[in-house]
């Protein structure tokens, strides 16, 4: 996994986590759900990159 991809995926995950917490704190269910989606997307991208790396070795 390239360092750039790893950083982008981690940033997406952290942004989603922040958005989820903000939505929870303000009672905004839509923002909270959007944060969960963003966090999950970041995690899935990281898993995909790790799988690609495993097959390259």
Mind sketching the topology for me?
Layout: H1 3-26, H2 29-56
Helix pairs in contact: 1-2
Number of domains: 1
Radius of gyration: 13 Å
Model regions low in confidence, pLDDT < 50 over at least 5 residues: none
Percent range for β-strand residues: under 5%
Rounded average pLDDT = 90
What structural category characterises the helix and strand content? mainly alpha
Looking at the structure, what is the overall shape?
elongated
The percent of residues in helical segments reads over 70%
The count of strands amounts to: 0
Describe the model.
The structure is a single chain. By secondary structure, the chain is mainly alpha-helical. Helix content is 91%, strand content 0%. The chain has helices at 3-26, 29-56. Helix 1 runs antiparallel to helix 2. The protein is elongated, with a radius of gyration of 13 Å. The relative contact order is 0.21. The mean pLDDT is 90.
Kindly summarize this structure in a few lines.
Helices cover 91% and strands 0% of the residues. It has 57 residues and is mostly helical. It has one domain (3-56).
Keywords:
57 residues; mainly alpha; 2 helices; 0% strand
């Amino acid at each position: 996994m390239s360092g750039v991809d790893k950083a982008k995926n981690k940033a997406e995950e952290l942004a989603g986590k922040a958005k989820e917490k903000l939505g929870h704190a303000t009672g905004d269910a839509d923002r909270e759900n959007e944060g969960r989606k963003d966090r999950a997307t970041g995690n899935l991208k990281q898993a995909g990159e790790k799988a690609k790396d495993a097959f390259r070795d």
